[in-house]
Design goal:
- The chain is α/β, with parallel strands linked by helices.
- The chain contains ten helices and 13 strands.
- The strands form three sheets. It has a six-stranded mixed beta sheet with strand order 3-2-1-4-7-13, with helices on both faces. Strands 10-9-8-11-12 form a five-stranded mixed beta sheet, with helices on both faces.
- Strand 8 and strand 9 (about 140-145) form a beta hairpin.
- The model is unreliable at about 305-310 (pLDDT under 50).
């Protein structure tokens, strides 16, 4: 196989439960971002058509991409078919890998778990080799970087931080199990708790503004979420002993003082005689997974220039 030049623009795609973020990057620091809001109710055919339209619009300005990286929160089988995605349940059985092949024919494309990629991006940005990342958004994701590499590693699967059980009697998670971190700390879970405390429904903007005003129902709703996240931080620190734990995701980035609240609960939960885990907000904000997808694309671009590397779509084992 002839070598392909390891140059040209790359594309990162971060798929989420409510939106998809895209970022193209070229030489000299040139970049362009776009955000696609999914329609409701979820329809994989309509979602994919909308994503295709956004990709084609970027291609009209950037040309063909040398490589593409995708951050994907869904559970996929080895062929790239969606096994489960609580954030977009209608995507079950959608042939994601085949869709990417049609969308980017002849282009190196790689995908990986969004939490893993966010952890990697934050680790690189911070210059630290041992990092735990928790992303709080429509769901709760995360990842562990150990000695500069993802743990447990692409060959073993993703790090499903959101499905750590923190309360066996807790709310039922979208995955079907009770007590997962995601069931207590995701954006939808926080909004449900806020509605119960307020006595009426609220949206994220309403919660954000009420929290800023110090409304007791909003403070309590968010504090409970932060306490649940802190429980996961402390548990993961007992196992991984990271240099730092990074808190990211759209919910964490959008609510003032979120990481500080998590840190306060972490100090309360720390075991006597042990160091309190360091907690910091994500340096890349809500864009950690997107930057991780770009890192994956750059890696695929470099690999595509080697004569011994096939040019195909591939993902991590989940």
């Amino acid at each position: 196989m002839a070598a392909r030049p390891a140059s040209g623009p790359v594309l990162g795609i971060d798929l989420g439960g409510t939106k998809a973020a895209l970022r193209a990057e070229g030489e000299g620091g040139a970049s362009e971002e776009s955000v696609l809001r999914w329609r409701t109710p979820a329809d994989p055919a309509a979602d994919w058509a909308a994503l295709t339209a956004d990709v084609r619009a970027l291609q009209s300005r950037w040309g063909d991409f040398a490589a593409v990286g995708v951050a994907m929160p869904a559970l996929l089988d080895r062929d790239g078919t969606v096994s489960a995605w609580p954030g977009r349940p209608s995507w079950s059985e959608f042939r994601f890998g085949d869709g990417l092949r049609r969308l980017f024919p002849g282009t190196p494309v790689r995908w990986a778990d969004d939490g893993d990629l966010a952890a990697l991006a934050e680790s690189v940005h911070a210059g630290r080799d041992d990092v735990v990342y928790l992303g709080v958004g429509t769901g709760v994701g995360g990842g562990i970087v150990r000695a500069g590499r993802l743990f447990p590693g692409p060959e073993r699967g993703s790090c499903e931080v959101g499905h750590i059980v923190i309360d066996r009697a807790g709310a039922r998670c979208d995955c079907g199990r009770r007590g997962c971190l995601q069931a207590a700390a995701s954006g939808p879970a926080t909004l449900r708790r806020a509605a119960e405390l307020r006595g009426s429904a609220t949206d994220f903007a309403g919660l954000r503004d009420a929290l800023a005003d110090g409304a007791p129902w909003a403070v309590r709703a968010v504090d409970e979420t932060c306490a649940a996240v802190a429980a996961a931080v402390v548990s993961l620190a007992e196992l991984a002993h990271p240099e730092t734990t990074v808190i990211g995701g759209g919910v964490a980035a959008g609510l003032a003082g979120f990481t500080a609240r998590v840190e306060a609960h972490t100090r309360q939960l720390a075991r006597p005689g042990t160091a309190v885990p360091a907690v910091a907000p994500a340096a890349l904000g809500a864009l950690s997974s997107l930057h991780g997808a770009l890192a994956l694309a750059r890696e695929a671009r470099t690999a595509s220039g080697r004569t011994d590397t096939p040019n195909h779509v591939e993902g991590t084992t989940r």
